[in-house]
Each structure stands twice: as structure tokens, then as C-alpha cells.
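**User:** Hello, beginner here. Are you able to go through the protein record under this note? It all follows right here:
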Amino acid sequence: MFGMRLPRYRTSTGIFDDLLAAHIRRLNEAWPKLIQPLQFAVEDVPPSDPTPWENEPNVCSRLFAAGHGVPTRIVLYRMPLQSRARGREELQWAIRDELVARIAQLYGRRPEEIDPDYRW
């Protein structure tokens, strides 16, 4: 038997959520005015119907613009990111790169400006 706080108890979904939350906190410390107005979400898989203006939809994440009282949202799709990563460390960097790319896209900046360690 093992306790709920032990690493072995964590599910892959819980690990993904923890990694995402850590990256959001880190980016918020560096860029509070850019990160605080955003909402972040995780879904298992992307919808099967991309919007008409998406020629090549990114299946790992999506950016939803603000509108009608709803803030801008960045949604990461857990299963595509997990299926591409070979291990926890690679998943950690995939989550980071996806977040940084979407934040840079939103604000019209280069990803390297948001996070100098961005690698894609």
C-alpha cells in the first residue's frame, strides 16, 4: 500500500496537470501581466471539427480568443502530447513548448522572448 502523496499514486492525468500548473506558475512569475488575464484548460483530445480558418490545426493545443465576457483561453490536449513524449522529462518540455508557443502567438512575439529556453 502507498499513500496518496507518494509519486506512485499519481495518475498520468494528475502528472500532466501538475506539470502544466508548474509551467503556468513559472511563466506567471516572469510575465504576470501577460499570463494573469488568460485561462488555461486541459482536454483529453481535440475536437474532430476544426474551425474553418484552421488549415492545419495543431492537435496538441488551441488558442481561443476572448469574446463576450469570456477571457482568452489556451487549451492543451493531454493525449496527443503524452503520445509524442517518451517519458516524463520529454512531456515536461512538450508542455512548456506548447504553452510558450501559444502565448507568443497570442501576443505577437517570438517564443524565445517569452521563454529563452524555448526549443522548437
About this structure: The chain has five helices and three strands. The CA atoms of residues 84 and 90 lie 9 Å apart. The first helix runs from residue 12 to 30. The mean pLDDT is 87.
